[in-house]
Amino acid sequence: MNLLDAWLAVVQENPTAPALVYQDEVWSRQRLQRLTAQIAQQLHQRGVKPGDMVGLALDQTPEHIAAMLAVARVGAISLPLHSRSRRQQREQLLNRFAASWVVSKQLLVLPTGMHLINLSELPTLTAADQPDLHFSDYWPTPETPARIGLTSGTTGEPNAILYSHGYWLHRIRTTIDNCDADTRITPSNLHLTLGNLTVFAALFAGGMVIFPPARQRHGLFNTIRRYSITHALTSPASVLDLATFAEDEGIAFPSLRHLRIVGGGMTERQIRVAKERLTPHLYLPYGLSEVGAVSIATPELLDSHPTYAGRCKEGVRVEALNEQGEPLPPGEEGLLRISVPGMPQGYYDRPEATAARFRDGWFYSSDVGRVSADGLIQISGRDDDRINLGGRKFHAEQVERVLLNHPEVSDAAVIGHENGQGRKVLIALVVLNHDGTPRQKLQPYCRQQRLGDLVPHRFLLVGELPRNEAGKLQRSELAKLIRSPSHH
Prior knowledge:
The protein is of the alpha/beta class. It folds into three domains: 3-164, Rossmann fold, CATH 3.40.50; 210-382, ANL, N-terminal domain (Rossmann fold, 3-Layer(aba) Sandwich); 390-483, GMP Synthetase, Chain A, domain 3 (2-Layer Sandwich). The protein has helices spanning 3-13, 29-46, 62-73, 87-96, 165-175, 193-204, 219-226, 236-244, 268-278, 299-304, 351-357, 396-404, 438-448, 478-483, and strands spanning 18-22, 25-28, 53-57, 77-80, 101-104, 115-118, 145-150, 160-164, 184-185, 208-210, 231-234, 258-261, 282-288, 292-297, 311-312, 317-321, 334-339, 358-359, 362-371, 377-382, 386-389, 392-395, 409-418, 424-432, 458-461. The strands form seven sheets. A five-stranded mixed sheet has the order 11-12-13-14-15, sandwiched between helices. Strands 16, 17, 18, 19 and 20 form a five-stranded antiparallel sheet that branches. A hairpin with a 5-residue loop joins strand 19 (362-371) and strand 20. Helix 5 (165-175) crosses helix 6 and helix 8 packs across helix 9 (268-278). The longest helix is centred in the N-terminal third of the chain and has 18 residues, at 29-46. The protein is globular.
């Protein structure tokens, strides 16, 4: 089965059933299928061939979903281009992957030799128009390449995994849990791997996708309430923000069966607020862009072991290694290597990175953690995020978790920074949930939490921290905030 087979099976089961809601308008499965066929025919007529690389520079819209399916239909490979990325970033990706085409609704300036397919120029479909996906003899197989999945790129240029139709379907089925015909899901960014997996998991199960209003701070909160959303995704940093919108005591989202926290671990305070104010059905997954879902912490586990990321999913193996690359006994901390059934065996067109990370059926991650005797996974942080202060190495998350448990802190990050006298000191960048003087309040708090010599030397108040589309902290950008004269 390929991606199109899975989609058409749902359409044929009930064409008039709702598939999505966009700008308060309900789209049937048949309507989304007709748009998919229209875009696929346009790609075919313009000369897009199997194996061509096609950039998708689209927003959170039905056209974005249809375009992913349409590119897969003609046997081409879709390349995510974040709609808010700068022109230079977009062109770097297009050149790196030798893209021939770009699909967008904007009039983009492209590098020489690349062609724009502007969806805003497509004619509006009428009830009499019935474009069909079976417009040529060619039909992709499960082995046909279909998608470039980019890693988060928080520490540099992202690597890429090439998805076939079959592997894409495998990731959809093994990443998003408990989807059925009653599922109503809000998608995360469709350019991200988790974003498109979420959407297709809901659609292929016969459920619905509900798009929140774009760039509205209350948008996700109001959408969950208005449409009785059953599945939603948000970042740890957004949990406290969502809770501030709940004016009354009690559970704000009684319809939610699955609130999935993505982009990092949670503090005990964030877990408590989420379960007391948003929904008791809180899930904290651990996974990697390269290999997929590894484990997931259930609501029950978060009650008893709030710092753990769950037990391995079926068939998954995780081992902590010492500096010599040897497996450590249960409970000891080390670099994690991971084996997931059906995982790729390398990066796309990056042999050196492949040799460093994929070996002997394992993926060697940059994550540091431990595996308990009963199989629970605990993530301490990333190896390349460790801070060295006077010879003492520690994870930034160790201090950040303490700060995030403070009731007046909504977000926090720490960084080692030269103090101008040749000595590295620890600086905390803090987002408060109200105006205040952070140094006076937070330094004594950190001492009370027994951080010892890890108490930050300075506290800087910032409006927000740099996070990518997946909600992950972009640590390489933190030094710029320290140099900014607007922070104190």
